[in-house]
């Protein structure tokens, strides 16, 4: 990261209590995550399902309960904010969700959905100002201002996601948390929306936390990437070094498993990589140890801390590298 | 093994029906894997359901074309008629195994049921075959897994169970419709490896449907690219990635993230066509950077640009310039 941190997470923990067959179980979704997002930076969080990446994103705007740790936005303690202060924070930190179908109210016009944050917070000087701001915001995301009068069912997936982005940027936020924003889109449309997000990020000088399971997408948009597995960060590095030369055994397995559009690298037969253990039976030491080819006795016992390796800014949580 | 000729599927009443799959032609040899790649709405799933005889009624219907399995015409046969007529065996697996498995039956009983239907055996012989199928799909701890209910298994294990059930009929052709799309990549690669191994070992033909060009490149032998209900390009996999002939294929490869060192991606402008909205000419013409007037007026020819490489385009990439 370069420059001032705009958002900082310190040792964040989040858990959910679930009932299974009458037993109360605790699911540790996030288990000690520390990250800082620089001003104007795009930080990617990548990981497979259940790794806790979504919970991290939702915790920041308090959509998801936090067990312990700290979230600091420009010197403000986010976890201590309530009422009006929390509402104000939620205008400065905005979220873009994965499913543009589920996140838009089908009975509200696009204009009303886009203006919602402004309506709630009395941001518009007049009716005319409101109409003007909606039109400007729709144009900024590449939609014709006449879309304001339409309804979600009249829009394609890509157009709906543009509306989702318009809703997020209307109150001129400083931070965007984008949770799988292009995962529901076909690749040709996905490229349009990714380009739009990159343009807006530069024009509006947004800081962005970009959460995705797709390394290709993350690699395109992020400057740095954090790799999560079972609630912890395994590796954190600048995008190019992380993609070209992963160090953590999990990151390496992940990179190798991604199908690449290169017919010279054929899948020829059985591949055994194991599966992650149950969320309710977390390994005592390194969470990746049960699947790791390098695992030693120590890995089963001690939790590896995220530490700097080499001379670079790369951080790795592994005893053996 | 499987040959599809000029398959056309349409929806709506006969007078004003709309084609959602048009003139689809391809064939798959023994032990060969054909990848059918396309974006949502391109017609790839409808094609596979038509081959299986699983098109819902009322709904889309096969309007023209032939489906041949091992030389026999099965176009008109319902699934059960195919079994009775001994007209060959096709099995299918889907994206979400949870919706295909019965949630209140143990895994072992569900596999045994498939064995009973296809082999007519029960008791010890059936159990023997179930164990053999589990080994084929590499499910460890067979005894524990057989007693489990679907919700107790991971997504990867459920898909292995579905493959075991599909294999129970000793299929000559396996149709796999996005079988790994819902899985994480470290699980996906294991399932892909398993499917490839089974095709090679059992000399089973596979039609593999996906939207993921990465999966196509690493898994399949031949590729058919679908767009707007038509197959716009067919090729061996190496030739396709080496020198795509159709402008859509090229554009699709270009807009994949992570392939370019450029900051901006190169999206395909516009949106995929809705069925029935393309009146004349090439389906891709409205989004094609190389489209000329003739592309919007006349249906494009199917041009053989190389051996085993056909492109549905009047001006294929890298072809004809030297003429």
Describe the structure.
Chain A has a single domain (5-229), classed as P-loop containing nucleotide triphosphate hydrolases (Rossmann fold). In chain A, 31% of the residues lie in helices and 24% in strands. The two termini of chain A are 22 Å apart. In chain A, helix 3 packs across helix 4 (127-140), helix 3 (110-120) packs parallel to helix 5 (157-169) and helix 5 (157-169) runs parallel beside helix 6 (187-203). With 321 residues, chain A is of the alpha/beta class. Chain A has helices spanning 53-60, 83-92, 110-120, 127-140, 157-169, 187-203, 215-221, 239-244, 249-257, 297-301, and strands at 5-20, 23-38, 42-46, 68-73, 76-77, 93-96, 175-179, 207-212, 224-229, 232-238, 307-308, 315-316. Chain B has 323 residues and is α/β, with parallel strands linked by helices. Chain B has two domains: 26-51 and 173-312, 3-Layer(aba) Sandwich (Rossmann fold); 90-170. In chain B, 33% of the residues lie in helices and 23% in strands. Chain B contains twelve helices and twelve strands. Chain B has helices spanning 44-52, 79-84, 97-100, 107-119, 123-136, 142-146, 155-167, 185-202, 213-219, 237-242, 247-254, 293-297; strands at residues 2-11, 18-28, 33-37, 61-69, 72-73, 90-93, 173-177, 205-210, 222-227, 230-236, 302-306, 309-312. In chain B, the strands form two sheets. In chain B, strands 6-7-8-3-9-10-12-11 form an eight-stranded mixed β-sheet, sandwiched between helices. Chain B has a four-stranded antiparallel β-sheet with strand order 2-1-4-5. At the A-B interface, helix 6, helix 7 and helix 9 of A face helix 8, helix 9, helix 10 and helix 11 of B.
């Amino acid at each position: 990261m370069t420059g001032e941190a705009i958002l900082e997470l310190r040792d964040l923990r989040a858990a959910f209590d679930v009932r299974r067959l009458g037993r109360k179980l605790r699911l540790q979704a996030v288990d000690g995550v520390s990250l800082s997002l620089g001003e104007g930076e795009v930080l990617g969080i990548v990981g497979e399902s259940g790794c806790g990446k979504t919970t991290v994103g939702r915790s920041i705007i308090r959509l998801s309960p936090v067990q312990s740790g700290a979230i600091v936005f420009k010197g403000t303690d986010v976890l201590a904010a309530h009422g009006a202060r929390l509402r104000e924070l939620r205008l400065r930190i905005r979220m873009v969700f994965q499913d543009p179908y589920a996140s838009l109210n089908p009975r509200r016009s696009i204009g009303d959905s886009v203006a919602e944050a402004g309506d709630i917070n009395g941001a518009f000087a007049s009716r005319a100002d409101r109409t003007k701001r909606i039109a400007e915001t729709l144009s900024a995301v590449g939609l014709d201002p006449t879309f304001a009068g339409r309804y979600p069912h009249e829009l394609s997936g890509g157009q709906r996601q543009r509306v989702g982005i318009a809703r997020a940027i209307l109150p001129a936020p400083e931070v965007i948390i984008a949770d799988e924003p292009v995962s529901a889109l076909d690749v040709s449309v996905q490229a349009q929306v990714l380009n739009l997000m990159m343009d807006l990020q530069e024009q509006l000088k947004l800081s962005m936390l970009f959460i995705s399971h797709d390394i290709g997408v993350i690699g395109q948009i992020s400057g740095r990437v954090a790799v999560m597995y079972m609630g912890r960060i395994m590796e954190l590095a600048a995008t190019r070094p992380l993609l070209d030369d992963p160090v953590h055994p999990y990151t390496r397995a992940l990179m190798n498993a991604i199908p690449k559009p290169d017919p010279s690298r054929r899948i020829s037969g059985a591949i055994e990589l194991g599966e992650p253990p149950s969320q309710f039976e977390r390994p005592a030491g390194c969470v990746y140890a049960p699947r790791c080819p390098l695992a030693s006795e120590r890995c089963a016992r001690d939790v590896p801390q995220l530490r700097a390796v080499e001379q670079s800014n790369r951080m790795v949580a592994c005893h053996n590298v | 093994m499987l040959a599809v000729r000029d398959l056309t599927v349409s929806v709506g009443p006969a007078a004003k029906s709309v084609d959602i799959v048009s003139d689809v032609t391809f064939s798959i040899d023994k032990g060969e894997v054909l990848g059918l790649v396309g974006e949502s709405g391109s017609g790839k799933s409808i094609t596979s359901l038509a081959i299986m005889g699983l098109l819902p009624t009322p709904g889309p219907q096969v309007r023209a074309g032939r489906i041949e399995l091992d030389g026999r015409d099965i176009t008109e046969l319902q699934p059960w008629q195919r079994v009775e007529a001994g007209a060959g065996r096709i099995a299918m697996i889907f994206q979400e195994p949870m919706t295909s498995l019965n949630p209140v039956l143990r895994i072992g009983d569900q596999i045994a049921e498939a064995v009973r239907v296809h082999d007519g055996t029960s008791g010890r012989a059936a159990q023997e075959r179930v164990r053999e199928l589990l080994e084929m799909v590499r499910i460890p701890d067979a005894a524990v897994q057989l007693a489990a209910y679907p919700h107790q298994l991971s997504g990867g294990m459920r898909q292995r169970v579905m493959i075991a059930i599909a294999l129970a009929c000793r299929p000559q052709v396996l149709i796999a419709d996005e079988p790994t799309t819902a899985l994480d990549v470290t699980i996906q690669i294991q399932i892909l490896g398993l499917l490839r191994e089974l095709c090679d070992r059992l000399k089973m033909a596979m039609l593999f449907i996906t939207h993921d060009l990465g999966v196509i490149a690493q898994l399949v032998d031949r590729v058919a690219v679908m767009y707007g209900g038509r197959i716009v390009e067919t090729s061996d996999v190496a030739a396709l990635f080496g020198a795509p002939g159709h402008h859509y294929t090229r554009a699709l490869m270009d807009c994949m993230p992570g392939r370019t060192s450029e900051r901006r991606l190169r999206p395909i402008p516009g949106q995929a066509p809705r069925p029935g909205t393309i009146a004349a000419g090439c389906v891709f013409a409205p989004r094609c950077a190389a489209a000329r007037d003739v592309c919007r007026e006349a249906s494009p020819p199917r041009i053989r640009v190389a051996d085993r490489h056909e492109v549905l385009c009047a001006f294929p990439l890298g072809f004809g310039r030297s003429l």
